[in-house]
Amino acid sequence: MTDFLDYLETESGQPISRCFQCKKCSGGCPVSSYSDIKAHQAVRLGQLGREEELISAPLVWYCIGCKTCQARCPNGIDISAILDVIKGQVLASGGMPGKPLPAFHESFLASVNRHGRVYELGMVIGYKWRVKRWTEDKELGLKMFAKGKLSLLPHRVSGRRQVRELFELHKVRGEING
Amino acid sequence: MVESVGYYPGCSLHTSAREYDYSSRAVLKALGVVTREIPDWNCCGASSGHSRDHTLSYALPLRNLIQAEEVASDLLVPCAACYSTLRVTEEYLAGGSKDARILQGKVEKVMGKPYQQKVKTVHPLDLLTRPEMLQKIKAGLKRRLTGMKVAPYYGCLLVRPEVAAFDDQEQPQKMDVLLREMGAEVVRWSYKTECCGGSLGVTQGDAASPLVDRLVAEAKKAGAMALVTACPLCQANLEGRQSQIMPVFYFTELVGLALGIPDSSEWLRGHLVDTKSALDQLEGVISLGR
């Protein structure tokens, strides 16, 4: 067992070693055609400890966690949970500046961290700022605005301090009560 | 029998999916269910929460579960993504693993309140399709949806992961049953649980559009004139990213219409795709004040 496989299995809680490449995951994966590698290949890279290749695979970010792979896997592997480990690693180390999918998660979480809830308009502006694609989807945005689908002001949680502390919890050493 | 339930709208239902919020509350009220919004709820983290770290993916929903304990024992969550994160978190903590107990301790410390595992997360589609509720809906029908051909679309998070599923994972039926009880004609199609693109609809329209277009095309091929969803992100993607013209209803809007709730036509004004084409198919259309 490689160190990387060990790490991935522990962090994702998924029995990666059990995969025998039946490819049912890739057959049902909605984003199969958007990446150079498919779901079953991502698992194989994990098994072989090929960390660099897995981290740089676009599939990591195209995966939206629909969990079809998990529902169909005969070995009960949730591939999106494996890819989440990689996403987390990248986001924790400063993301991938200018790349739309990491930038979306950063903008979304920044909004939640700040207000306690997602402030959709602010989130979208933060996202556009990160990717510098101001005019993309302008029409859709205006249509949504016209239909009253975007609030001008954020809805804030009064327990914002608690929410901010929740964001830092992964750094806190825990102990078991009772 | 549920009479008073906790209610968690989630961020979308307060902004882009207001009609889902209004219709859910109105329908529940009409059926005699009192909804109590949980105090000072926060975002559940959605797909971004679990993309960052799993502590956060459980901590954000757990704060809501703790807040909900003050209100009621059942917590209704209309947004499929929020429903999923809350339900998964509830199960994770009920599992009682070492990691789960450590997380619980940390969140309790932040909040200064204990988590007592008293709340059960329920999706409104699950509640409305319980026999006693279906009975009430049937008894309260003011306008049957006869003539309306619809494709029930469940998407991902009502049926996956398995711990959160309240219907068959590959061939769910609850929305079908509900729609049929109201007189609608439910088409048979194979794309009920295919993904709409989720957050790709926000960031990568070019990637989400083909997924959405395939769903719309397949629904059309099956003879449907409208799609019915139970998720704000599915609804937004289906309406906003389709290149055709097919209305997309929240299932609660159709229940409201069938129960003759006066505000029903107001909810439909918020849609990006005009719903008229589907409503005109209703037999003996009663003016909806449009």
Explain this structure to me?
The complex is a heterodimer of chains A (178) and B (290). Chain A is mainly α and 178 residues long. Chain A has 11 helices and no strands. In chain A, helix 1 packs across helix 7, helix 8 packs antiparallel against helix 9 (120-131) and helix 8 packs across helix 11. The radius of gyration of chain A is 19 Å and the shape is globular. With 290 residues, chain B is an alpha/beta fold. Chain B has 2 domains: 4-124, Glutathione S-transferase Yfyf (Class Pi), Chain A, domain 2 (Up-down Bundle), CATH 1.20.1050; 142-279, Rossmann fold, CATH 3.40.50.11810. In chain B, helix 2 crosses helix 13 (251-258), helix 4 (54-68) packs across helix 5 and helix 4 crosses helix 6 (98-111). The longest helix of chain B is centred in the C-terminal third of the chain and has 17 residues, at 205-221. At the A-B interface, helix 6, helix 7, helix 8, helix 9 and helix 10 of A face helix 1, helix 3, helix 4, helix 6 and helix 10 of B.
Shape of chain B: globular
Instruction: Briefly note the CATH topology name of the largest domain in chain B.
Output: Rossmann fold
Multimer state: heterodimer
Largest β-sheet summary of chain B:
4 strands, parallel
Taken in chain order, the helices and strands of chain A follow as HHHHHHHHHHH
Q: Structurally, how many domains make up the residues of chain B? A: 2
The parts of chain A where pLDDT drops under 50 for at least 5 residues are none
Give keywords:
heterodimer, A: 178 residues, mainly alpha, Fumarate Reductase Iron-sulfur Protein, Chain B, domain 2, 56% helix, B: 290 residues, alpha/beta, Glutathione S-transferase Yfyf (Class Pi), Chain A, domain 2, Rossmann fold, 4-stranded parallel sheet, 15 helices, 48% helix
